[in-house]
Fold this protein.
Amino acid sequence: MTAPRPILVTGGAGFIGSHACKQLAAAGYLPITFDNLSRGHRRAVRWGPLIVGDIRDSAALECAIAEYRPEAILHFAALAYVGESVADPSPYYSHNVAGTLAILDAARGAGIDQLVFSSSCATYGVPDTLPVSETAPQRPVSPYGRTKLFCEQIIQDYAAAYGLRYVILRYFNASGCDPDGDLGEWHTPETHLVPRILMAANGIIPSVEIFGSDHATPDGTCVRDFIHVTDLAHAHVLALDYMSSGGKSLAVNIGSGQGVSVRDILDAVSRNTGRPVPTEMRPRRQGDPPILYADPALARRTLGFSARLSNINVILGTAAAAFASPAATGAAEGRGWQPTPFHADRSGITAKLEP
Ligand code: UDP
């Protein structure tokens, strides 16, 4: 048996990073999580060692790299709330941009020449055409989106000058949870749509706010491309494989290619529970493009990526199951609530994900 190949995973204790660590381990890698635990969770780090540190701390990064000698870096660690980035951009530029620079310099110093970077569809802003392809102009409308775009540009400059190879993954809306129930979406505070709707359906919050019903969309609510986090996690394994086999640097969308509205999700949950989800109408949220969904063709062609779990029933079913699990309801989060049984639809979970 060959030893697992070490990969440094910044943000490996977070929602997407932890799901990726699980898949890395299944694919023969050793995920070494580097995370400051400001938004991630110690209990989400289950498939390799955890180093508690801040990515802006170059000495801590160098130390971790010297100890584990990773062959590549998966760089997830970032602040990622659009609304928060508008209200308080300073930590976003610091963690996301200065943090990425520290990672790039540490990688360069140690001769690590492969990077997978977590970028975002937020770099596109309000697209002129749909679905959004990678050649669409990148004109972000939030500080968060701008931090991701700046990082993409810095990475490209480092690649041109220093021989770094990269795969930039532009995520659409990560949602759902590990189908085996090992991991949940444990954001604090929770601002994302799918968990907020499930929280309202379960009486954890009195209602879910709907940010705008007057958008230029078929039902007036925003349309997004909800990609199951397990599909998204798998894209990282494919990206590593792609670079290992000599693939050229690449920036690529990771989405399902399907547009689903906020209203569609509310309706799906109401149908499932047999009760309307309590809602509260609010004005549009600053920085929200009305419609975003991916053209996933380049990811298919280059990485062999396809979204297998990204239909809304599987997303809701796995998210609801994680909500109902002891890990999600237990003392760790201090919630102590009893969820209303959600009829978790596992029928779509048929595809076995090969490592
Ligand atoms: N949204 C909403 N109510 C909420 C959370 C989100 O109406 O409580 C909307 C939000 O305006 C956006 C979509 O749901 O149109 C997805 O938002 P989310 O924060 O989940 O992800 P984002 O698209 O910002 O990455």
